[in-house]
Design goal:
Elements lengths: L2 E4 L9 H10 L4 E7 L11 H8 L5 E7 L7 H6 L4 E4 L7 H10 L3 E6 L5 H4 L8 E5 L15 H14 L4 E5 L7 H6 L4 E4 L1 H4 L6 H8 L1
Parallel strand pairs: 1-8, 2-3, 3-4, 4-5, 5-6, 6-7, 7-8
The structure holds D-xylitol-5-phosphate and zinc ion.
The site of D-xylitol-5-phosphate has 21 residues, from strand 2, strand 8 and helix 8.
Length: about 220
C-alpha cells in the first residue's frame, strides 16, 4: 500500500507537537520535514533541532527533505537528530556519492530529490546507490503550489528503470499532491506521497479520512 508522508511545512507551528501526534494516530506512515535555508530555496524553515524534538513525539519514519546548499556539513547533525531517511538535492554538491555514503554508512536511508529542472539522465549514476528518490512536482521552496503534471513521466521512468535494473529505491512524490492526482502518481509507480497543504489545511478530525482517501 502507498505510504503517506504528511509535510509539517503546512502545520500550525504553535501546535506542532499536537499536529504530529494527530498525524501519527490518524495513519501517517512517515512525517515529512522540509528543511529550507533561504539559499538553495528562497524560504527558511527548520534546522536539526526540530527533527530532534519530533523524534521524542513520534516513532513514525522521519522523512527529512534537505533543500539546503551546502549540505554535506549538516548531514551529521541531521543523523544525530534522529532522521530515518535523509534526502538531498544532488546538484548542490560536486560529489553527491560521498554524501550518499555518509548517510548509508550510519544505516540511515539515503535519498535524492529531483528538482523539476533536473533530468533523470543527470542523476542516473546515483540511482543504484539510494533507497528513496523524491520526484518534485513543484519548484521546491513553498507549500501550496500547483502539481506539475509534466513531472509524472519521471515517476514512470524511474519505475521502469528500477524494474529493468533490479534497483530497490522507493519513489516518493512531493508537491501539490491531492485527491485528484494521488491516483495518477500511484498508477505510475509511486510508493510514497508527501502531502502538505491538502491535508494540513483541514481540521484534525478529517486527517484519518483524507489519509485513507489518498491511498
Ligand atoms: C516543497 C516541499 C514540499 C511541500 C509539500 O518545497 O518540499 O514538501 O511543502 O506541500 P504541498 O503539498 O502543499 O505542496
Ligand atoms: Zn518536501
Amino acid at each position: 500500500m502507498i505510504k503517506i508522508s504528511p509535510s509539517i511545512l503546512s502545520a500550525d507551528i504553535l501546535k506542532l507537537e499536537e499536529e504530529v501526534r494527530s498525524l501519527d494516530l490518524n495513519g501517517a506512515d512517515y512525517i515529512h520535514i522540509d528543511i529550507m535555508d533561504g539559499h538553495y530555496v528562497p524560504n527558511i524553515t527548520f534546522g536539526p533541532n526540530i527533527v530532534k524534538s519530533l523524534r521524542k513525539v513520534t516513532s513514525k519514519i522521519l522523512d527529512v527533505h534537505l533543500m539546503i546548499k551546502p549540505v554535506k556539513k549538516y548531514i551529521n547533525e541531521f543523523v544525530e537528530a534522529g532522521s530515518d531517511i535523509i534526502t538531498f538535492h544532488p546538484e548542490v554538491d560536486d560529489n553527491p556519492e560521498e554524501i550518499i555514503k555518509m548517510i548509508s554508512d550510519v544505516e540511515i536511508k539515503a535519498g535524492i530529490a529531483i528538482h523539476p529542472k533536473v533530468n533523470i539522465t543527470d542523476i542516473d549514476h546515483l540511482l543504484s546507490k539510494v533507497q528513496q528518490i523524491i520526484v518534485m512536482t513543484v519548484t521546491p521552496g513553498f507549500g501550496g503550489q500547483k502539481f506539475m503534471h509534466e513531472q509524472v513521466k519521471k515517476i514512470k521512468d524511474l519505475d521502469e528503470i528500477r524494474k529493468n535494473n533490479n534497483y530497490n529505491y522507493k519513489i516518493a512524490v512531493d508537491g501539490g499532491v491531492n485527491n485528484e492526482n494521488a491516483k495518477i502518481c500511484k498508477d505510475n509507480g509511486a510508493d510514497v506521497l508527501a502531502v502538505g497543504s491538502y491535508l494540513l489545511s483541514q481540521n484534525q478530525n478529517k486527517y484519518y479520512e483524507i489519509i485513507n482517501s489518498l491511498r
